[in-house]
Amino acid sequence: MDLPRPAHRPARPDLTLVPRPRRLSPRPGRFRLDAGTRLRVAPGAETAADLLRAYLATGTGPCLEPADDGAFVLALDPALTGLGQEGYGLTVSEQGVLLRAARPAGLLRGVQTVRQLLPYEALAGPSGTDLELPGVEITDVPAHPWRGMLLDVARHFQPVSYLHRFVDLLALHKLNVLQLHLTDDQGWRMPVAAHPRLTEVGGRRAQSMVGPAGSDRFDGRPHGGAYTRAELAGLVSYAAARGVTVVPEIGVPGHVRSALAAYPELGNHPDRRLDVWTRWGVCANVLGVGDHVLDFFRTVLDEVMDVFPSPYVHLGGDEVPTGEWESSPAAVARAAREGLSGPRALHGWFMDRMAGHVVRAGRRPVAWAEDGATLPLSCTVMSWRTPEHAWAAARRGHDVIHADHRRTYFDYARGSGPGEPPAQPGHTTGLRSVYDVELLPPPDEPELAGRVLGAQGQLWTEFVPTPAHIEYLTFPRLCALAERAWHPADDWRDFRSRLDGHRARLTALGVPHDTLRDPAPA
């Protein structure tokens, strides 16, 4: 259920920016963008200039030809050290526009602010009229370096064309990470040349469960899809041009039923033939622990790291039932041989082997914090069950990303109204719940703040088959997450006031942030 709108409205609707800039001062006058506007691009600012031209061409058509005396200036100045990696300064007056940053990423964030300053209708498509930017002085620096959103394309595949749109929506809100959940029990979407059956077999399931885990109803419709290497490489480039890093997630040693359907020898019962799972919930099947399994997934990770240049690689690691290991003589023997306390300890052992491979490749492994379990110290921890697990990991020396399911899981319903489309049962996550995501450490442990990289939203897609449904559940809750990850202040009333104006941008972009007309699968 959407919350009531505040009684007050901002005096300047054109300055209802989300997330809120660190410092903003309105200035008199407006700058007109028209066919005669020229762009002065300093060395190192070319990517930001290309992005700005692309957005403005979508609005009215000015192509912003380059000129040494251009009134719209993009400047890269490494001496602006106070702006850090992603900060920027923006000045708009009647005479011109100056966008400055110390690093290219900062210019890309500033371009998104310019995009939000445009008239709302300019976001909807070509208007054939000149544009004006309001006079303003902005200095802006993010509070946290990781501002992410996970999209699960394993349970319900989405075409790469939609992922491009999703990236643009993240970039508009200054999120800088798209975590792509590429594999799960219900589907494998990542191509691996050495193991083609992962997508040929693992990328298709016979049908999908209707309703929550435990349901006995199925839709009877096959579902499948997989990306090509070229599509994923193109997505990585598209996202990078907008300042978004695509972090791949290949989950092990659980959530692997699709891989086991393709290659039974990876399991604890290699003679058993499994199908790609058609149910939701936690599957009992997990990877075996033989050397050939480790080698197989090292090859998978090598290909993943070749396609995705992200400094981070997510290894999953959550919801790993140990029943198969406990009943497997091979797994029991492996635990004994490795000096482990028993088969249950194979979870940490397996994660350590995969994390070590990622580290040796010069990357940083990420894993879900599961029941407070200890993970390899090389792992960045994504804490999803409770914030206490995040602080426990920080005390052990991990960097942490807050992903508390009660605050950041957008597959939960936005409200309890009868008009809400299908969603994950068990919890309701309203806009205020997301806004209240806790990023500050316990008061008596302020030193842990240095371990907090940021926060991330999650959209698992058991109940979310279409782009329209994705966007309905994501917005406007993503706006609240973006606000808290970017700006350190806690001012709910001010955020709600700005969100009222920002909703017009979402409407112009065709984002169904209020109602979902057709939640049914296409």
Automatic annotation (TrEMBL):
Instruction: Give every Glycoside hydrolase family 20 catalytic domain span.
Output: 144-488
Q: Start and end of every Beta-hexosaminidase bacterial type N-terminal domain?
A: 16-140
Q: Where is this region: Disordered?
A: 1-28
- Point to the regions of Basic residues compositional bias: 1-10
Reactions listed under catalytic activity: Hydrolysis of terminal non-reducing N-acetyl-D-hexosamine residues in N-acetyl-beta-D-hexosaminides
* Keywords assigned by UniProt, alphabetized: Glycosidase, Hydrolase
Q: What is its EC number?
A: 3.2.1.52
Q: Which Pfam families match?
A: Glyco_hydro_20, Glyco_hydro_20b
Name the Gene3D superfamilies on file.
Answer: Chitobiase/beta-hexosaminidase domain 2-like, Glycosidases
The family line of this record is: Belongs to the glycosyl hydrolase 20 family.
What's this protein's name?
Answer: beta-N-acetylhexosaminidase
